[in-house]
Each structure stands twice: as structure tokens, then as C-alpha cells.
Amino acid sequence: MAALSGISEELAQLDGQVAxxxxxxxxxxxxxxxxxxxNRQSRQLEExxxxxxxxxxxxxxxDREVKDMEYSNDAATNRMLNEKKQSMVKELNSYVALxxxxxxxxxxxxxxxxxxxxxxxxxxxxxxxxxxTNQQLMxxxxxxxxxxxxxxxxxxxxxxxxVNVGTETAAALKAQTEQMGRIVNELDSIHxxxxxxxxxxxxxxxxxxxxxCIMALLFxxxxxxxxxxxxxxxxxxNKDIRDIPGLAPPAATNRKLxxxxx
Length: 262
Fold this sequence. Notes:
The chain has helices at residues 2-7, 9-34, 38-68, 75-130, 134-234, 258-261. By secondary structure, it is mainly alpha-helical.
């Protein structure tokens, strides 16, 4: 670990964590060997499995860190780090094999526990059958056949009900599929309507903009006419402003009074 600390503090820390887990695994398997209760053994195996999973994760982090530093270290250092990683993997694999062995033994014990009552009941049935007469054996056989027929009828009923449920489910799925198709068609129609509405809104917007421009132009013309009229009324002798048709004052005429003609 001291050599690793000189290379990388992170590698040294990972190595220390892996070593702690290996010590915990060693102590855990020693305790497991002394346990007699299968339930306690099962719980202990689960805890050891979790520790081995953590150890595997740390070894992967160690390997990732070694690969990141591969180009910055010399060949001897890289070889030492790879040997250290292989040693970790080898030790972890030994604990994994030990765990599989204990798990297999535990499964065999459980199988023996479940098989023992079956063997004892089989022996009891054979002893019971040997003490029965032929008529009793025939009656017992007929009774078992009747029970078997009833079980078959119940199974047929269950199968029939299952088929009916499957048919109803298929019909419901078909109806839902058709409904989904109608919904998709309606969505397409709505999308088309929205697209047409968007086009209409754009056209209306362009028409409104055109109308505004025309109104603005008319407003400017009206303002100009009003300005000319005002200027003409204020200064009628201004020759720079032409008379507006229909608004020019009437021309002066020489009128002679009737009494002047005499």
C-alpha cells in the first residue's frame, strides 16, 4: 500500500478498501462454517454476497484508474499494478467459489428436508395398502378415479372460462383499436383544420396590413388637403398655392347698376 501511495493516493485508498473487504469475507466465512441453522446461513451468505459485489465494484474502479495512468507510468509500474489487480481478482474468485459451495450445500439440505416427508408418506401409503382387502382396494381406486374425473371437469371449466375471458379481451382490444383509429383520423382532421385556420389568419393579417396602409395614405391625403385649404383661407393672395377645384372664390365681375346705365 505504501508503494501504491507513491503512485496514486486514489489507488492506495482503493487497495485499502479491497483489503478490508477481504478480511471481512474471511471472518464471515469462518462464522458461516460454525453456523448450524440454515436460515442464519442463508442470511450470512446474502451479507457476504453484498460484500463481494462491493469488492467487485472497487476492483473495477482500480482497473479503470490503472488504465487512465497507463501512459504516464513506466513499464515496471504498469506491470506491478496489473499484477496487483490480478491478485485481487484471484482472491475474489476464491471467495465466490467458496460462496457457491456453501450455497449448494444449503440447497441440498433444504431439498432433503422437503423430500423426507414425501418418502415417509410413501412408506405409510404402502403399509396402508397392504392391510386393505381387494374390495377395499377397488373401492378406493374407484373413489380416486371419481376424484380425478371431478378434477378434470373443474379443469375443463377453468379452461372454458379462460377461453371466454380471452375472447372478451380480444373483442375489447379490437374495439379499442378501432376507437384509436377513429381518434387518429379525428386528430388528422383537426390538424388539417388548424393548418387551414393558420393560413386564413395569415391572409387576414396581410389584408388588415394592406387596409391599414390604404387608410394611412388616405389620412395623409386628407390632412394635406385640409392643410392646403387652411393656408388658402389664411393667405388667399399666395400665388404659390394653386386653387383647389370647387373651392376657388368666384371671379370678380363688372356689374353695372340699373340706375348707372341711365
